[in-house]
């Protein structure tokens, strides 16, 4: 058990920093892989060149996003053995196999078909290439499936037995572990968020180019597809989020009480607080602005439903209310803006101004990073709201950390901050450069460098020769 509170705080900050960076890229690549599959499928079905042009345009961006997601994920996973070795030892028999399944199924599937997807269009034929694209899209979903199963088990653990040495051991079946009570809700909510995040980025890029050239056919197509997705998925995400919140209310009430700012119990119906300043020391919500009874209507489905507040929970069992309270409102506020964008786009589509409305285009452009902010805010709400536990109700975060000194954790955190901003900042800058370039007809495909020097097993082959030509003789022998 780590007794130095400063080292524990730095270890938590380090994991939060690295996982926040990592989460951005899968949230984009999951949706973008499916978008690429849709574009290629529409191209095969209709034969319209605009779809394959957009496919090639976004394929370059996907390649960079996917690479950064893999690299940031590998780095993040090492912290289980460095900063959280006690957690790895005790929970490893349960979470280790699940993470291995992610590698054996999703990662191998993606790795097997990614090269064909990126460089194989002219080598394997259109239909087989489409199969490769679909397999990569399925692989991203399977990866989310296993990772979210692990994370959900930490929130709602079940299907395990405790070993004599304090380890969590799998019970008679893996199914209760994999399909734990919060997993279906968290999976649907997260994957839907990834699709919505991608739609906002694609819509923002389309809006950017429409503001410069309203006649750009490719910008029109991508913007129209993105706005359809926003209009359809944003309302669905609100419904899914509500169901996920009710599931959390059933299994993690302190988290929901922190989200809603309910320090005090409300025996005759709780208000829905829209604004307030959480005051943990005094255990109250200062400057509270709320709608009477609506909180109970949401949580208990009746206006006079009693809600027991944080005053019924020991102080050492409560999460940091201020962080959870505000991150939840950031997520919900952005979700409502996404819904508004979808509705405005439907209105503009009905009025035949979808491609000519500067207000809509500027709105979409401003909302393009909103999905990333919302998923990070949602992650903060979920993970900070689980505190003080890492395995909810069974293992505290302070009990899970490695016995490291503060300087060791501080130095690794500083190194991560510098390297991450340098490497991933450069990658993000390059992605933005690609997005700034408008898509056009006959968008070039990705090409592998067959003519570049390639070193394999200590050998460097000579330059590629044209078929049927003899290699040149050494000088003096011609």
TrEMBL record:
Transmembrane spans: 15-36, 57-78, 98-121, 128-148, 192-211, 223-240, 323-347, 359-380, 413-432
Predominant location category: membrane
Keyword field: Cell membrane, Electron transport, Heme, Iron, Membrane, Metal-binding, Transmembrane, Transmembrane helix, Transport
InterPro entries assigned to the protein according to its UniProt record, in alphabetical order: Cyt-d_ubiquinol_oxidase_su_1
Biased composition (Polar residues): 457-467
Compartments it resides in: Cell inner membrane; Cell membrane
Coiled coil: none
Any one GO BP annotation for this protein: aerobic electron transport chain
Residue numbers spanned by region Disordered: 443-478
Membrane topology: Multi-pass membrane protein
UniProt GO MF annotations: electron transfer activity; heme binding; metal ion binding; oxidoreductase activity, acting on diphenols and related substances as donors, oxygen as acceptor
Protein's UniProt name: Cytochrome ubiquinol oxidase subunit I
Organism: Croceibacterium soli
């Amino acid at each position: 058990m780590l007794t130095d509170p400063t080292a524990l705080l730095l270890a938590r900050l380090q994991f939060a920093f690295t996982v926040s960076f990592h989460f951005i890229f899968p949230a984009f690549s999951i949706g973008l892989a499916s978008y690429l599959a849709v574009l290629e499928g529409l191209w095969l079905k209709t034969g319209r060149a605009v779809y394959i042009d957009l496919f090639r345009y976004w394929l370059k961006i996907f390649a960079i996003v996917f690479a950064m997601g893999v690299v940031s994920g590998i780095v993040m996973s090492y912290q289980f053995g460095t900063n959280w070795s006690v957690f790895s030892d005790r929970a490893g028999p349960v979470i280790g196999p699940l993470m291995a399944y992610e590698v054996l199924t999703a990662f191998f599937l993606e790795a097997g078909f990614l090269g064909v997807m990126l460089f194989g269009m002219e080598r394997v034929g259109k239909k087989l290439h489409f199969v490769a694209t679909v397999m990569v899209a399925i692989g991203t979903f399977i990866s989310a499936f296993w990772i979210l199963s692990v994370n959900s088990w930490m929130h709602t653990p079940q299907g395990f037995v405790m070993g004599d040495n304090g380890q969590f051991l799998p019970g008679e079946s893996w199914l209760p572990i994999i399909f734990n009570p919060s997993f279906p809700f968290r999976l649907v909510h997260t994957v839907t968020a990834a699709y919505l995040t991608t739609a906002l980025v694609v819509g923002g890029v389309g809006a950017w180019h429409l503001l410069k050239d309203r006649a750009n056919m490719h910008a029109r197509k991508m913007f129209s597809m993105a706005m359809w997705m926003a209009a359809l998925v944003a309302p669905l995400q609100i419904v899914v989020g509500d169901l996920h919140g009710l599931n959390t209310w059933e299994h993690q009430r302190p988290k929901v009480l922190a989200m809603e700012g309910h320090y005090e119990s409300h025996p005759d119906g709780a208000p829905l607080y829209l604004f307030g300043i959480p005051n943990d020391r005094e255990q109250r919500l200062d400057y509270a602005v709320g709608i009477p009874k609506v909180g109970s209507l949401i949580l208990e489905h009746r206006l006079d439903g009693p809600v027991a507040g944080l005053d019924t929970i020991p102080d050492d069992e409560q999460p940091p209310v201020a962080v959870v309270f505000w991150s939840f409102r950031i997520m919900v506020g952005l979700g409502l803006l996404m819904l508004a964008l979808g509705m405005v786009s439907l209105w503009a589509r009905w009025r035949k101004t979808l491609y000519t409305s500067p207000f809509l285009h500027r709105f979409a452009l401003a909302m393009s990073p909103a999905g990333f902010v919302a998923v990070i805010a949602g992650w903060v709400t979920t993970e900070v709201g689980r505190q003080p536990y890492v395995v909810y109700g069974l293992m505290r975060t302070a009990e899970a950390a490695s016995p490291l000194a503060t300087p060791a954790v501080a130095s690794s955190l500083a190194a991560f901050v510098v390297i991450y901003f340098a490497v991933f900042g450069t990658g993000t800058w390059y992605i933005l450069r690609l997005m700034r370039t408008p898509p056009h007809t006959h968008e070039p495909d990705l090409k592998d460098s067959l003519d570049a020097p390639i070193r394999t097993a200590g050998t460097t082959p000579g330059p590629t020769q044209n078929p049927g030509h003899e290699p040149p003789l050494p000088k003096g022998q011609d």
